[in-house]
Amino acid sequence: MTNHPRTSPDAAGALDALAAAPAAELTETLLEICSSPSWAAAVAASRPWADRDALLAANTAAMAALTVGDLADAMAGHARIGKPKSGDATSEREQAGIQGVDSALLDELHEANAAYEAKFGHVFLICATGRTADTMLASLRERFPHDAATEAEIVRGELRKINDIRINRLLDEA
């Protein structure tokens, strides 16, 4: 494998190991990144990956191909913004921006989430990594007026960003 400038030798080894993993093991790993079976199958089918960028491109292509039902599967793996899954290190890390915020702001976030869920029928999904509770609430309010089709495409983009972060973390932690 040729090392890409963004692929360290350790990450290249992780990428090779991921590409060589038995199908069931690879699927399990991919489903930890994104809970859509269609996404996991599409990414798995694109192996081997020449480098990190090829795996990230596979994520982008798989995300673009997801149906509305597949997007629902992908969103099902995500905690509500403002309520990370207790004991889930990934959820807690990704929503670190809500830790220690004042209860009034959390209440506003919960109310806005409830209105969003009532309108769209699913959790508000945003790449929360590096965002504060204030910025997530502002994004939620900004996106609330959208129609379902517009919001689905924004969700698709947010899921891709989340998957990119999770893929990079998987490779970097090797």
UniProtKB/TrEMBL annotation:
Enzyme Commission (EC) number: 4.1.1.97
Catalytic activities: 5-hydroxy-2-oxo-4-ureido-2,5-dihydro-1H-imidazole-5-carboxylate + H(+) = (S)-allantoin + CO2
Domain called Oxo-4-hydroxy-4-carboxy-5-ureidoimidazoline decarboxylase: residue spans: 20-168
Cited InterPro entries: OHCU_decarboxylase, OHCU_decarboxylase-2, OHCU_decarboxylase_sf
Signal peptide boundaries: none
Swiss-Prot/TrEMBL keywords: Decarboxylase, Lyase, Purine metabolism
Recorded metabolic or biological pathway in which this protein acts: Purine metabolism; urate degradation; (S)-allantoin from urate: step 3/3
Domain of life: Bacteria
Pfam families on file: OHCU_decarbox
First-tier enzyme category under EC: lyase
NCBIfam families named among the record's database cross-references: PRK13798.1, UraD_2
Protein name: 2-oxo-4-hydroxy-4-carboxy-5-ureidoimidazoline decarboxylase
Species in which this protein is naturally found: Kitasatospora kazusensis
Gene designation per UniProt: uraD
